[in-house]
Amino acid sequence: MRCTKRMTTEQEQIIADLKTDTVQPGTLLKAKREALGLTQKQVADRLRLRLSIIQSLEENNFASDQVATFTRGYLRSYAKAVGIKESVILASFDDCYPTVVAEQPMQSFSKKTKREKHDSRIMTLTWGIFAIIIGISSLWWWQNQEQENVVVESSPSITSTSVERLRDEDFTTVPELVPTVDESQVEAEAVDIPVEINTQAAELIPSPEDDTAEADLSASDDPVLDKTPPQDATNPYAPLTLTFSADCWIQVKDAAGKTLSTGIKKSGQTVTLQGEAPFQIILGAPESVSMTFASEPVDLSGYTSGKVARFTLP
Q1: Which structural domain range is residue 64 located in?
Q2: Does the keyword Repressor apply (predicted)?
Q3: What is the pLDDT of residues 292-309, one digit of tens each?
Q4: Residue 86 resides in a domain
Q5: Residue 239, preceding bond cis, omega within 30 degrees?
């Protein structure tokens, strides 16, 4: 909104006197503004500038770090707002501050644009590298999860296959896990294990009835040297002697189901057992065992080497 207030003759004379001498541009603008009766705030609002800029212009306080082009633009706008010719204000500025105009050439906006473009490229590259790192990390984590799932899913089948392969014929000297019968279970019913016996096996000796089973005479570590004199084969308590040429796992039970001996026997060891016949015998490596029953040798040549032998004697 333009002020229509007419200047008095005195105010016009002040401006005329100012024009005759070299006056700073801020002083001219301030005198004209006051002559029009305007405040600094009104001029700042009209030009949409900060009040501090108007104050700096009127005080001729031109910042040395400010580009001269901006200063000239402010002066031109202020002069137009208060009705002073732009050429008068700019000429006053050039006369009073020639060094500012000379030493502050206009900066190229193209440099700023190039710098911003360069910074933008750097940021884009940085974000790209960050995205690649995140992608690789996610892929690595996903592959590890897949591998763990495959291992967990395949474990049951591996266990099943291993169990199927653990059969009796695959063992030579590894003992079977057979529970030991407690002495309190002597009265339990004896279970006969059917086995195929070679035609060249030991003689079958009739087993008479008897009342009780004698104690185990075997020793797990030291050979047992039984000095019992030879007995008749018809004796149900005839001794059973096993001599080992190599390590072998055995299990021997009497007619009542009592375990007379079980475990791994060492090479060179001799074990003599006495109990109620018939005996249920398991040999992990029959080829490494020499056996006599009632002082008569027992033929074990019919059993395959490397396979578990199960039979009843006599």
Answers
A1: 9-103
A2: no
A3: 998 899 998 889 888 999
A4: yes
A5: no
Question: Is the same domain home to 91 and 195?
Answer: no
User: Of the candidates 214, 212, 226, which has an alpha carbon nearest to the alpha carbon of residue 272?
Assistant: 226
Please give the Cα distance from 49 to 46 (Å, whole number): 8
Structural domain includes residue 207: yes
pTM higher than the cut 0.85: no
Handedness of CA 3, 4, 8, 12 (dihedral sign): positive
- For residue 219, being part of any structural domain is answered with yes
Residue 147 pLDDT class (50, 70, 90 cuts) = confident
Are the C-beta atoms of residues 300 and 291 closer than 8 Å to each other?
Answer: yes
Q: How confident is the model at residue 163 (pLDDT cuts 50, 70, 90)?
A: very low
- With 0-12 / 13-18 / 19 or more C-beta atoms within 10 angstroms meaning exposed / middle / buried, residue 85 is exposed
Separation between Cα atoms, residue 182 and residue 188, nearest integer Å: 10
Q: Look at residue 295 and tell me if it is in a domain.
A: yes
